[in-house]
Design brief:
Oligomer: single chain
Mean pLDDT: 83
Low-confidence stretches: 1-25, 27-45
Radius of gyration: 17 Å
Largest sheet: 7 strands, antiparallel
Distance between the termini: 43 Å
Strand order of the largest sheet: 1-9-8-11-12-13-10
Helix content: 10-25%
Number of strands: 13
């Protein structure tokens, strides 16, 4: 923390600070280091460069809530009983305290579901954010309608074409203090070359095969804090889970997502889907 404060002081007087060597990068609400970095660089926050959407547009989107009922992360409905989110959002020990909200554009409304259990990926690494997946089993089935339905999953190792347009959605931080974080927003971003993205994130350890990048090299559109665990969808399939990134919508740093196709066999093993 002292090192971070020093970087703040240097940035205020106009001298740039190199990206940290350690991956200060997940995007749940509590990643304050990235929030401060956004204020320093005056970059946008939240589903950056996005637009309001109705839950009917992304009926697979859910909100993961803490013990107090406050939104923490996003998630995706993959069946009437199962949710896929990020491991840095949900650990096995947290299941008694968390709930899922589904079926509403307003994150303070909707139907609340209790959790049966959380299954983080056994290879999840909190230092590198690799294998950033958790499966959530609900205590009761979700009744599907126009506001609540499952999204299809890719096949194991199914490729995502470079430049494929993807939609990311969530209730994360807002760019403008006058914009409410209560209503769902989304933005459309293209997938980007894996090797180029790994080079850009070389100071953070690079990009693993369990990750993919999506965004614009000039910045401007991205996911951000509070969007973690939420869906990245393309072609009607869940291709990614919001995972991490350097800042939000910063030039030269596309958003990094957990690649669902890399763990499709694990999902099938745990859920039967």
């Amino acid at each position: 923390m002292k090192l971070f404060v020093l970087c703040v002081a240097i940035a205020v007087v106009g001298v740039s600070c190199a990206p940290p060597e350690l991956p200060q990068r997940p995007r749940p609400w509590w990643n304050h280091s990235t929030l401060f970095q956004n204020l320093i660089t005056k970059s946008s926050s939240r589903i950056v460069g996005g637009f309001p959407v109705s839950i009917e547009d992304v009926p697979y989107q859910v909100s993961l809530r803490n013990w107090a009922g406050s939104h923490m992360c996003g998630g995706s409905i993959i069946s009437s009983r199962w949710i896929l989110t990020a491991a840095h959002c949900a650990s096995a020990s947290s299941s008694p305290m968390y709930t899922i909200m589904a079926g509403s554009t307003n994150r303070k409304e909707g139907t609340v579901f209790k959790l049966e259990r959380i299954i983080p990926h056994p290879l999840y690494n909190g230092n590198t954010i690799d294998y950033d997946f958790s499966l959530i089993e609900l205590k009761q089935d979700i009744e599907f309608d126009d506001t609540r339905s499952a999204i299809a999953l890719p096949m194991q190792d199914e490729p995502l074409k470079e430049g494929a347009l993807c939609r990311v959605s969530g209730w994360g931080d807002t760019k403008n203090w006058s914009e409410s974080t209560t209503l769902l927003r989304a933005t459309d971003v293209p997938s980007v070359d894996q090797d180029r993205c790994s080079t850009a994130y070389g100071g953070f350890g690079g990009i693993t095969p369990r990750m993919l990048c999506a965004g614009y090299w000039e910045g401007g559109k991205d996911a951000c804090q509070g969007d973690s665990g939420g869906p990245l969808a393309s072609g009607g399939k869940l291709v990614g889970v919001v995972s991490w990134g350097y800042g939000c919508a910063m030039e030269g740093y596309p958003g990094v997502y957990s690649r669902v196709a890399a763990v499709r066999d694990w999902i099938q093993q745990e859920t039967g889907l």
